[in-house]
């Protein structure tokens, strides 16, 4: 070509060759993913513009397979083909790439933040580690592309095609990906909290360890999707089709309505979970398995738990409203709020319902064998054909209840209140009915039951008996003390008497000695009086039994001495 430099002529020739070799790409590709091995040229073999700032340059008419590594294309409107181009580490921030032809392109660690990529063809492209935050690849084609480690926070990828794509660890936080087709895509460890993914297709999609907390997934198709380890806390799964959430964690806010004929345990699996911190529960957890779960104080009044397995749950103070046919064996429902609850056909055998509020609850055909219903409030309960065999119902308030054909065999109804209850056909064989209030109870038949003295009377008589015992014991003790004191006083008196008797005995003896010592036997002494006194003193001493008798002895001796000393 005369007048044209050889380098430019070579470039034009290369561009023309590339244009002739690249097949036309429709504006909205609908074909299957184009693998890299079908590219018309080797990536990086086209124009060499690596590291160039292309923001002020006129782009070549074709950049297919161009070497644009580290190039800068920020804000550019790119209409030329980029099929198979190598844009590794390139900056395309805010670039206008709508309808771009980028199949098989290398965009590893490229910056595509805020870029417009609507309807772009990125099939089979390498976007590993790329930054696509706030980008707009809606209706774009990513079939077979590898986006592992890319960030797409707040990206608008709705109705995009991700068939067979790899999105391992991709950040889709708050992204708008509704209607996207992600069949067979690998979204392992994807971060998609609060992402809008409703109406999307997840057929055979891998979502292991994915963070889908708070994500909107309603009306999506999930046939064969793998959710093992995925966090679905607060996710919206209403009207999802063919979802199998086995192995997932977290409690979704909404779940698809279970099959009305679902089998117990076939629903969500929350065995052993601590659910006390969950703020929003799905409306329907029918057939879920919550064996051993912790639900203390949780409000489940808006949750349907029909045919759910709730064996051995800890739900003290919890509120339940619908658990028809549920398995609540061994459940700890102490002080639970079950007013107006529908527990028809539920199995509550061995459950702890002590102090529970069951007013107006439905317990028709429920099994409560061995249950603890002490102090339970059961006003106006409907419990026709319910089985209370062996239940502890001390002080239970069963006022105005309906218990037609109910079974109370061997139940303990001590001080319970069945007044105004309807009990036609109810069985009380072997029941303990001491203190049972049955005023105005209809058709009650306590045949075979037993009653003993009520606890109140037992307490009364026990207190009375103790009172009598203590009074008798007090009287006896007083008598014993008085007798002991009397014996002690008698002993003391005997000792004093003996001492006084010896004194008077010596006194009488001295009187005799004084009589013998008198030598004058003349008629001046009244010897008759002296000797009479001496004899009387000896006789009085011999007869003496108390101190007064000894006083008499002393008086007689004194009279004898006086007579001895007196002269006629």
Write a brief structural summary.
This is Pentapeptide repeat-containing protein. Keywords: Membrane, Repeat, Signal, Transmembrane, Transmembrane helix. It is built from four helices and two strands; from the N terminus they run αββααα.
Structural notes for this entry:
Keywords: Membrane, Repeat, Signal, Transmembrane, Transmembrane helix. InterPro entries: 5peptide_repeat. The chain crosses the membrane at residues 455-478. The structure is a single chain. With 568 residues, the chain is mainly alpha-helical. The chain contains 4 helices and 2 strands, in the order αββααα. Helix content is 20%, strand content 2%. A two-stranded parallel sheet has the order 1-2. Helix 2 (455-517) runs parallel beside helix 4 (547-565). 49% of the residues are buried. Mean pLDDT is 89; it is low at 1-35.
List keywords for this structure.
single chain, 568 residues, mainly alpha, two-stranded parallel ribbon, 4 helices, disordered N terminus
Strand order of the largest sheet: 1-2
Q: How many helical elements? A: 4
**How many strand segments?**
2
Structural class: mainly alpha
Q: Radius of gyration, Cα only, in angstroms? A: 55 Å
Protein name: Pentapeptide repeat-containing protein
Signal peptide: 1-27
Pfam family, one: Pentapeptide
InterPro entries: 5peptide_repeat (IPR001646)
